[in-house]
C-alpha cells in the first residue's frame, strides 16, 4: 500500500510537471495518481486531524472557499484547499499531489474543499466532511442537472453527510429548511447565514435563488441567522455575528458583534458569501473563533481567479466578468456601476444551451462592441430583440479579440470582457497568460 | 359602433410554474415581431385562480418546467381544459413546449406508472422515463426548412398518425428511434424544443402570428421593418452554426 502511494505521488507529480511544461495545467496528474492508487485521496484526507469542511452550491463556491480558508488560516490553522474550479475528485487529487510528502502525508490541520454539486454525493463518501457549508441552488447548468429539484436532492445528500456542523443560506428557497428534509444527527449543529430583508429584497435580482415548487416548511429569510449581513456599502459589508454558544434564535441584537469586511467586488452575493464563510468558521472553530480575525482575513484576500479579475494587456486594465451561469452573470451585471464604454462577449459550446439569456436582464449594457465564440449569433439575436446595438460578430476568436483590443482606451473605466469559462481560458492563453492549475472545470 | 380594437392578444399560460430556461422569451419575441410591424399586442398572463375571459385570446403559449412544476400545473390545466379546447377548435394558434405540451395532450404516464389525464387539446400521449437526451436539436420541417434548438427530455411522445414539426436530423425527437419531432397540424404546434425556440426560428413565430391575424383580419402596417430583417439575418447565422456542428452530452 505504501509503495503504491509513493508510486502514485511520484508518477502524478511527474505528469504534473510535464503538463505544466506543455502549458496545460489540468486534472490529468490527479487522474493518473487515482488510477495507480485509488485510495490515495480518501486515505490522505482521512489523516487530516481537524477533518474536512466541504463548500458547495451553484454559485460562489470558489470565492467562499477562498474566504473561509483565509479566515481559518488567520486563526493559526494550517489549511489544505483546492484551487478554484478544481472541485472534482481528480482536481482535488491534483491539488493534494503538490502538497503531500512522497509517503503521502499531508502537513495540514484542516481541509477546506470546494466540491462540485454534481459529484457531491460521491465526494461526500470519499471525504467524510465534518462540516458542510451550502451556499445556494440557482438555475445553474440545467443542461447538466436538468432540474433544480435534482440539485437540491444532491446537496441534501451532501448535507446529510455532515457530522459536526451544517451551515445553510436561509435566503435560499431550497436551503432554508434543508435541515428538516434530511435525517438529523445528535452531534450536528445547524446554523444559518443571511441578510437583513432590506438588503436581500433590494438586491435587484434578489439572491437569484431557483424557484421551488411544492411543499416547503419555511419561508426564505425566516430562520435566525448566526451571521447576518446588516449593511452594505460598495465593496464593504457589515456582518453581525451571534456569539458562539448562544442559541441563534434568542439573541438580542446588542449581544452580537458587528464587523466590517471587504468584499471581492460590489454585490450582495459577495456579502452573503462572506457571511457564509464567517458562519462556517464560527461553527468549525467554536470557542476559538474571533470575529475580528474575519475582517483581517478578508482585507488581505486576493480576488479569486477569473471573477471580477483585472488583466493587464499592453499596459491597459481589462475587467473580466465570468459568465458561469445565469445567476452569476446577472449578479455581476447588476454590480456594474455604469454601462461599460467597451464590452466584448465570448461564449462557446462550454455553454451548450444559452437559452437562459432570455431570462437575464441586460439593461446594465447599452451596446456590445464585439461578440465571438460558437454561440455568438444566439447572443446577437437576443441583443437584437433587446434593442442593444451590436457592433461586430466574428466567430474567429483571435480576430474578434484583436479588433476589440485595438479600440482606443475608454475615456472612463476599463474595457470589459464577459466570458464563459472555456473562452476565458482560451483568451488568457491567446494573450499569453499562464493557465490555471487544478483542472476539473466548474 | 366603435371599431374593434386593433390589438393582438397573447394568452401566456402559467408563466410562473412553466417557464424554464428562457421560455418566456417566446412571448416577448411574438410581441415584438408584431409590434415592430405596427400591430400592438397585449399579453395576458394566467397563473391559475380566478378565471379570465379566455375567449379574448388570439394566440396561446404554454412553456415547460421540471416534473415537480408539471405536477402542480396539472390540476390548474385541467380546470381550464374546456376553455382551451374551445380556443383550439376555434382556430386560435397554440405553441406548447415540453411539460406544457404534455399537459395539453390526452394523457401522461409518469415514471412510476401513474397516469395523468391531460387537457385533450393535442391528440397525443406522453410516457416519462427512458434515457434523458440533452443536446442540440436539428429538425427539417417541410414548411420552414431547418429548425434548430435544444433538446432536454426524459420522455417519449406518441402523436399517432398526426403531422409533426419535422423530421429529426440531429437529436432524438418523439420516439426511442429518432424519427419525427413534435406535433404540428393546423393551428396547433407542440414540441420538446426547449427554451426560446422562436429566437432561432423566426419563421415559426411569423407562422403563428399569421394564423392569429388572419382569423381576426388584422394587418401589419410595415411587414418587414429593418430591425426584424437584421435580427432574422442573425438567426439565420445561428441556425447555420448549430446545424453545422450539433453537439450533445
Ligand atoms: Zn422536456
Name a few traits of the molecule.
heterodimer; A: 442 residues; alpha/beta; UDP-N-acetylmuramoyl-L-alanine:D-glutamate ligase; Protein-Tyrosine Phosphatase, Chain A; nine-stranded mixed β-sheet; 16 helices; 16 strands; 36% helix; globular; B: 249 residues; seven-stranded mixed β-sheet; 7 helices; binds zinc ion; GATase_3 (chain B); ligase (chain B); glutamine amidotransferase (chain B)
Describe how the helices and strands are arranged.
The complex is a heterodimer of chains A (442) and B (249).
Chain A: H1 2-21, H2 28-36, H3 40-46, E1 52-56, H4 61-74, E2 79-81, H5 89-97, E3 110-114, H6 120-127, E4 131-134, H7 142-145, H8 148-161, E5 165-169, H9 178-181, E6 189-195, H10 197-202, E7 204-207, E8 227-233, E9 236-241, E10 257-262, H11 268-285, H12 291-299, E11 309-313, E12 316-322, H13 326-334, E13 343-346, E14 368-372, H14 376-386, E15 390-393, H15 397-405, E16 415-419, H16 421-430
Parallel strand pairs in A: 1-3, 1-4, 2-3, 4-5, 5-6, 6-8, 12-16, 13-14, 13-16, 14-15
Antiparallel strand pairs in A: 8-9, 9-10, 11-12
Helix pairs in contact in A: 1-2, 2-5, 4-11, 4-12, 6-8
Chain B: E1 8-13, H1 25-35, E2 41-46, E3 59-62, H2 67-79, H3 81-89, E4 94-97, H4 98-103, E5 107-109, E6 115-117, E7 125-141, E8 145-158, E9 166-170, E10 180-181, E11 183-185, E12 188-191, E13 193-194, H5 197-200, H6 202-216, H7 226-244
Parallel strand pairs in B: 1-2, 1-3, 3-4, 4-12, 5-7
Antiparallel strand pairs in B: 5-6, 7-8, 7-9, 8-13, 9-10, 11-12
Zinc ion binds at residues 64, 98, 152-153, 192 of chain B.
